[in-house]
């Protein structure tokens, strides 16, 4: 698809994408889409008649005058699809509606804003954030470190998508710097008795994840069936689930990670609609309809993963960037619809804006892991382009996650998921 | 304190209490207080000049025209204190302001509503719900069941308040019935390999807890010190953290409970302000300033627990109620301010309306435990008054938690925390 707008060939936001987000430029927070180097302010667009050629959205235009995408998401997938396809039409070189934007200099001036001039925000009001553990290779790698090869995967792992509730308040948009957390760590893990010390985290790590935003809610007591689950998913973002490994090692028994994860979780601000990812469906590590899965988790089709190449880049204080890992979204054992079906099987209610993380997405080869812990095991340092070495993150390090499906000129990507580590706060 | 209003001597809502909640009667949700058998509609009260004798609240009256208590809570503890003391004054037999309500039949008629005629709601918009594990005896009892007496408590237990993130969306007000959840359980836990079956939960349990609502938020990256922590707490409620033990046993490794807890958590709808509980301060199992605690957790004073007798009642289908347990809030090893200090030590931000559960509050003697699992260990049944026996809950069972501090005529209580188990939904 060619556009009358100049879109760089390497842009993650080609005409094939049309991701939705929340921006602020001169004024308040408004919904927008990203296209090439621009954001289209949907509040300005809608209030100037930009949707005049899409009759079905007329009764819902107030969703574009909101500080979050929750109201738009709640309209449901058929509406998201119509709006995305309409906006693709508006931007196409051979648009059916040239009068809407292509030949409308005034609306271009008021609604089409260079992305370098906008601030991005967390796109939805997140009710609850759940983090799954669906990256099979990550679960295996971590299991080997803690329990050895023979017991690496717990007996439940291939029967259900393991998950824990995460912290919604500290989900931040890409670009937000985070202080290195402090807390209790065991300086000497083999001492008896075990006496913790108070310290800044010394094993600060990342986790490369995808995450889904929920669109359509379900009522308490009404599970979502696997066949309907995808229609409850609005779209995906990239996510860095920052992890303090030494705090985690001391605190996590018996109820799981808490302070090790609650100080910040970074997401890309543009939600890539589930329909935009449809062309990249692929079979994952195992098919979504594999034998052995209980019926409530069994998908109708085998291809329930996505072919999305992923990368992790680390840079210290403006130095030379180093790609430390290349992975792929195919490394997930469970699909997002399977996560929705499992999450709700007890009757748990999901709300519009709830966030479901995939778990860390690692490959099986060297330099394909989605965390430092897996790559270094605290023993084998990662070498950066500036000659320095890393077991874990240092203050001043900037981490960028990227994910880009498709081919040049037609990329469907997430943009950069960026975070920089600031020194610990003083006590 | 005597009131001109007739307040039953056994009411948990004496003049010494003045808890805040959200009610709806004929119209929309509004803030209210409970007093005796009545609710005072604070929207009607404020809009008819009820607060005319409290000058400091005049600029904030809009907080009483909201569907949640978040805005009122955010005003901070000094304001909560002034409003509570003013309302106590208004209701006192020797009130300084008889014209406000005592001698104002019109306002009594419009704002003072029999509680039997109102619907209660979850009083705050809960951003995140965190559940701690601060009940020492519960942690010990569960530890004995899983790991034996010698390793019952994990090494971290006496150094930090263990916690996990819970599910906010399914927190419901007292009186909301819940379906027995279904999910994966191990019908034969000793078989090899372990193959789960899909089933309604067969080990449905309760957990007797207190929970704190957060008033004043803290910014991301700004920990709350132990000395300031209490001023971030709005007040307490009773909480039943329903637990599906068989689902939990299969799913919980390695990241903690998830589906076993996400189908419903019941709270009392009236928030007892932290100031109302001040007279019931007591030393808990160990002092809040005990040696060995890291400084960020050490309270200035020893008396950081509360003397609040608690009870658990079970009734099947309108039969005769049975008190199956009597416990006390003194059984918590950590105080709510310690929980706030620990939660935020990494820089995690708490928001107004966040809910912090205490963990199950059990005693050390028979019939003082806050869960069926501890009382029965799946072996020794609890006998109910109707002659039937329980290892865990049956369909049709109604559980009521109660907590009542103080003495007759001056009780500071929470009211009933009630839930009835409905049959599982059909698949």
TrEMBL record, chains A, B:
Q: Which UniProt keywords apply?
A: Calcium, Hydrolase, Magnesium, Metal-binding, Phenylalanine catabolism, Tyrosine catabolism
> Which residue intervals define the domain Fumarylacetoacetase-like C-terminal in the entry?
138-418
Tell me the cofactors it needs. Mg(2+); Ca(2+)
Domain (Fumarylacetoacetase N-terminal): give its ranges: 16-123
Q: Where does Mg(2+) bind?
A: 241, 261, 265
Residues at the active site: 138
Q: Name one GO biological process term.
A: L-phenylalanine catabolic process
Q: Which InterPro entries match?
A: Fumarylacetoacetase (IPR005959), Fumarylacetoacetase-like_C (IPR011234), Fumarylacetoacetase_C_sf (IPR036663), Fumarylacetoacetase_N (IPR015377), Fumarylacetoacetase_N_sf (IPR036462)
EC number(s) recorded for this UniProt protein: 3.7.1.2
Residues reported in the UniProt entry to bind Ca(2+): 131, 207, 209, 241
SUPFAM superfamilies attached here?
Answer: FAH, Fumarylacetoacetate hydrolase, FAH, N-terminal domain
- Tell me if DNA repair is a UniProt keyword of this record: no
Q: Which GO terms label this protein's molecular function in UniProt? A: fumarylacetoacetase activity; metal ion binding
Family as reported in the entry's similarity comment: Belongs to the FAH family.
Its protein name is Fumarylacetoacetase
């Amino acid at each position: 698809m060619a556009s009358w707008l100049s879109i760089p060939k390497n842009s993650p936001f080609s005409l094939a994408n049309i991701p939705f987000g929340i921006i602020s430029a001169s004024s308040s927070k408004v919904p927008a889409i990203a296209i090439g180097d621009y954001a289209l302010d949907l509040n300005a667009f809608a209030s100037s008649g930009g949707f005049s050629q899409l009759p079905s959205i007329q009764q819902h235009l107030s969703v574009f005058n909101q500080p979050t995408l929750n109201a738009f998401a709640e309209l449901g997938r058929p509406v998201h699809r119509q709006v995305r396809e309409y906006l693709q039409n508006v931007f196409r070189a051979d648009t059916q509606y040239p009068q809407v934007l292509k030949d409308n200099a005034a609306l271009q001036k008021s609604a089409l804003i260079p992305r370098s001039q906008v601030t991005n925000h967390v796109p939805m009001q997140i009710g609850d954030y759940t983090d799954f553990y669906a990256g099979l290779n990550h679960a295996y790698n971590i299991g080997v470190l803690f329990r050895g090869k023979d017991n690496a995967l717990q007996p439940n792992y291939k029967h259900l998508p393991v998950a824990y509730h995460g912290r919604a308040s500290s989900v931040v948009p890409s670009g937000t710097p985070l202080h290195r957390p402090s807390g209790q760590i065991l300086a000497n893990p083999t001492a008896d008795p075990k006496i913790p010390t108070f310290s800044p985290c010394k094993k600060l790590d990342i986790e490369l994840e995808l995450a889904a935003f929920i669109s359509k809610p379900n009522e308490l007591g009404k599970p979502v069936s696997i066949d309907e689950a995808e229609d409850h998913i609005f779209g995906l973002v990239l996510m860095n689930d920052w992890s303090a490994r030494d705090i985690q090692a001391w605190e996590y028994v018996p109820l799981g990670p808490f302070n090790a994860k609650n100080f910040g979780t970074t997401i890309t601000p543009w939600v890539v609609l589930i329909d935009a990812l449809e062309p990249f469906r692929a079979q994952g590590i195992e098919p979504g309809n594999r034998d052995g899965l209980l019926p409530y988790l069994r998908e109708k089709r085998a291809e329930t993963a996505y072919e999305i190449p992923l990368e992790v880049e680390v840079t210290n204080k403006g130095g030379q960037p180093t790609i430390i890992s290349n992975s792929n979204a195919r490394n997930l054992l469970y699909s997002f619809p399977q996560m929705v079906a499992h999450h709700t099987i007890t009757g748990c209610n999901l709300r519009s804006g709830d966030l479901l993380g995939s778990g860390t997405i690692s490959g099986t080869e060297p330099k394909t892991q989605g965390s430092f812990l897996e790559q270094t095991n605290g023993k084998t340092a990662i070498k950066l382009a500036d000659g320095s070495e890393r077991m874990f993150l240092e203050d001043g390090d900037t981490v960028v996650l990227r994910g880009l499906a498709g081919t040049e000129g037609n990329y469907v990507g997430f943009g950069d998921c960026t975070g920089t580590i600031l020194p610990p706060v003083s006590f």
